[in-house]
Amino acid sequence: AAAAAAESMAGILAWFWNERFWLPHNVTWADLKNTDEATFPQAEDLYLACPLAFCIFMIRLIFERFIARPCAMGLKIQANGPQKAQSNAILEKVFTAITKHPDEKRLEGLSKQLDWDVRTIQRWFRQRRNQEKPSTLARFCESMWKFTFYLYIFTYGVRFLKKTPWLWNTKECWYNYPYQPLTVDIHYYYVLELSFYLSLLFSQFTDIRRKDFLIMFLHHVAAISLITFSYVNNMARVGTLVMCLHDAADVLIEAAKMANYAKCQILCNLLFAMFAILFISSRLGVYPVWILNTTLFESWEIVGPYPSWWVFNLLLILLQLLHSFWSYLIVKTVCRAISKGKVSKDDRSDIESSSDEDDGPPPSQKHHSSATNGTNKNHGTNGYLTGGSYPDEH
Q1: Is the bond preceding 391 in cis, omega lying within 30 degrees of 0?
Q2: Number of neighbouring beta carbons within 10 Å of residue 242
Q3: How far apart are CA 86 and CA 91, in angstroms?
Q4: Mean pLDDT of 86-113
């Protein structure tokens, strides 16, 4: 049985690593084995990314605790979260054991049981859901971590790429392909980027949860797939261009979020405007004209298509669709900002906002000062700037 299982696994691996899928015609894996004269990308090199992703996650925890948190305190960002819901054992039992989003029938039943009006119970459930959201301090720490990483990796990418011929002439990505030696810089760049996106993929389940959770999950999977694909079949040169292009705008959006948390509205607006211009021009302009042009047309002319070439380009096109979706959200945010005079909430808000009439305190709190009314609606200012991860794609 063990021998049969081993034989079956060997068959699966042979099918998965079929040279006719991964490599151009007349090229074999043996041709890309490392020699004393040249080093080429090897699939097993990427195994290092898994333990490194765990290390990056641990570094993030240390960074947020000992660097980002003191910076936030210095900017007078408090750890206060959204307004807490009034203590109520019956509603708490329904919330934890039955549903966080009661339907109309259940709301009416609770209204009769508690002698509260339906609107008050709806507000209680909204406040209770928001109560589980992270504080502004936690959001600031998350954004500062991502800002620091993106700034470092983007700076590294620019310093490395400006010395390469393919930055200035994208056809260099395909000359003598796939027999292009792997340099230490490319290897480091790839493993670090892959490790970071693996850490994001897993931490997405513990970070601030947003409305576009599934889209961001799809994005991370696409990014990891692109990095892996381009490394394994040695499309590393064009891969470095894709990674560097995408890191540029990510630096600005995280900086804009931090400015928003620190209540530096003018700086926030300026950074967001710079981000919007850079994101739309790079993702809807430079990316298709520079990246897709070379992967679709120049590579076809110089190398010719083969199965993994089609998969790689399909992933790049999927990324372009995500760019278009996020650009649409950015334009909506910009239009709203122009009408309101500042950048505020957008469709990715992770704190539920409410109308003015919904924000009064529950019945037993009516005697409190009216200054407490409407506090929950202030937490609607989230979206791109108070949200966490936003286009960090590759």
Answers
A1: no
A2: 23
A3: 10
A4: 88
User: What's the pLDDT band for 78 if we cut at 50, 70, 90?
Assistant: confident
Structural contact between residues 248 and 286, judged by C-beta atoms closer than 8 angstroms:
no
Joined together, the tokens standing for residue 144 give 């500062």
The pLDDT tens digits for 115-168 are 888 899 898 888 888 776 778 898 899 999 999 999 999 999 999 999 999 999
Which among 316, 340, 364 is the end of a domain?
340
- Report if residue 223 sits inside a domain: yes
Residues 48 and 186 in one domain: yes
pLDDT at 377: 34
Residue 374 forms part of a structural domain: no
Q: Which residue has the tokens 């924000």?
A: 359
Query: Two tokens at 66?
Result: 């000992």
> Can you list the pairs that 261-264 forms with residues at least 24 positions away whose Cβ atoms lie under 8 Å?
261/72, 261/75, 261/77, 261/136, 261/139, 261/140, 261/143, 261/386, 262/75, 262/76, 262/77, 262/140
Query: What CATH number corresponds to the domain at position 103?
Result: 1.10.10.60
Confidence (pTM):
0.79
260 and 205 belong to one structural domain: yes
Cα→Cα distances 6→17, 19, 29, 39, 365, Å: 16, 21, 22, 30, 68
For CA atoms 145, 148, 150, 153, the dihedral sign is: negative
Phi, psi angle pair for 348, to nearest 5°: -95, 15
Residue 393's closest CA among 322, 336, 327, 332? Answer: 322
Residue 386 placed within a domain: no
Q: Which of 82-91, 130-139, 340-349, 370-379 has the lowest mean pLDDT?
A: 370-379
pLDDT for the residue numbered 241: 97
Domain span at residue 69?
A: 38-74+136-340
Q: Which residues contact 290 (CB under 8 A, 6 or more apart)?
A: 170, 241, 245
- The pLDDT mean for the chain works out to 84
